[in-house]
Amino acid sequence: xxxxxxxxGAAPAPEAGPGGTPDRTRTITDWRPEEEEFWTETGAGxxxxxxVFSVLTEHIGxxxxxxxxxxxxxxxxxxxxxxxxxxxxxxLPTALGAVLRLPYTYAVARFGGRNWTVFSALLLxxxxxxxxxxxxxxxxxxxxxxxxxxxxxxxxxxASSMANINAFYPHRLKGWAxxxxxxxxxxxxxxxxxxxxxxxxTAGAGxxxxxxxxxxxxxxxAALGAAxxxxxxxxxxxxxxxxxxxxxxxxxxxMSLLYIGTFGSFIGFGFAxxxxxxxxxxxQFGTPVRAACLTFLGPLLGSLARPVGGRLADRFGGARVTLxxxxxxxxxxxxxxxxxxxxxxxxxxxxxxxxxxxxxxxNGSTYKMIPAVFRARADGAVAGGADPGAxxxxxxxxxxxxIGLAGAVGAFGxxxxxxxxxxxxxxxxxxxxxxxxxxxAYAVCAVVTWAVYLRPGAGRLAGI
Length: 464
Prior knowledge:
There is one protein chain. Mean pLDDT is 85; it is low at 1-23. By secondary structure, this protein is mostly helical. It has helices spanning 36-65, 67-71, 83-111, 113-123, 125-134, 141-150, 153-168, 174-186, 188-202, 210-229, 241-248, 250-280, 288-295, 297-316, 318-342, 345-383, 388-428, 432-454, and strands spanning 15-16, 22-23, 27-28, 232-233. The chain has a single domain, classed as Growth Hormone, Chain: A (Up-down Bundle), CATH 1.20.1250.20. It contains 18 helices and 4 strands. Helix content is 76%, strand content 2%. It has a two-stranded antiparallel ribbon with strand order 1-2. The protein has a two-stranded parallel sheet with strand order 3-4. The chain is globular and about 65 Å long. The two termini are 31 Å apart.
């Protein structure tokens, strides 16, 4: 039985530390989710509670990370920032968030999932407070760049949250659990855009500082909830070799490429969509309020689709779902390109929203594939005579490391999306070159998925 016990929904009793004194670190030292009896009696409830508060803090992290996708809509002529400058403001937090995902993944094992969740949540106060202080006409562009970059700390929360939840759930439920965790976090993107729309519609474009200040009390509440209700897992020992071992695994880089295509698309489009509407369809969306009315819809549907992708991957296999997703995303990019050239706003919105939904499905399916890679390796090791418990623990350790690696590389896809839009609009005044680039990228990802995981032949990992 677990050393942390549920008591009628109350907070779990602290463990007995040395000499019988209570352990206030809330660390679970006995965790066996693959054992059916343990999972039914104890594990499921504990994992569910940690999942709920993980989703909450990650959700706010995503909102802070994508804060500048909303704030750029407030930057009118008084700020003297052109369209290219605004795409740079949205690319910077994406880049920093991608870089932070590696140390954030490592931090979960080093400091504990609960402890790091509390700290990383409180860290979100920095970019929100700074944005609330500096956003006013006359502020220098360099100051805006620095404050926008600070919002990247919200991007790191995803990697630590996913690595933590990955360790709580059994393999058969990972697709669902990681999909719910990521989908709930991704919802932070449309929610902050809705907050921005509400401020624009009520206070007006002259009050951008209200948007970040809304999140200050929410951040404090999320950190408090994590401190009171989450747990550390003692089995997540700090092993610096895990990331190096994952980096030496060829499948790690394949999965990172696929994640660029799915998550990179989602976060990149989420940051850029409002600007694209405002610039490319200026006649229809000349004001920030009109653009914001539709900006949130794509990220919302994409976030809701992420658990669906995880569930489909649990049932049909992550590789099959991912391949179909990339093929449909290529069709979606073709639709957007056609609509852009024809100047058809309804077709453009249809294609772009389809890309958001499909990227969400692909997010869920690719994250199911990550633990499946090392589970397949563990099954092979056990068949060769390795200890099953040690093989399972090693698979979990490497899966968590790969979640951080793939998450970091994949998030750079969001940077590439914003840079592609910036260059395309600078060069031709429209996004056609960017849409062609996305189409080619999805085609490459589809070919790689089929060749590595679905093509008949020896040497292919089974069950992915």
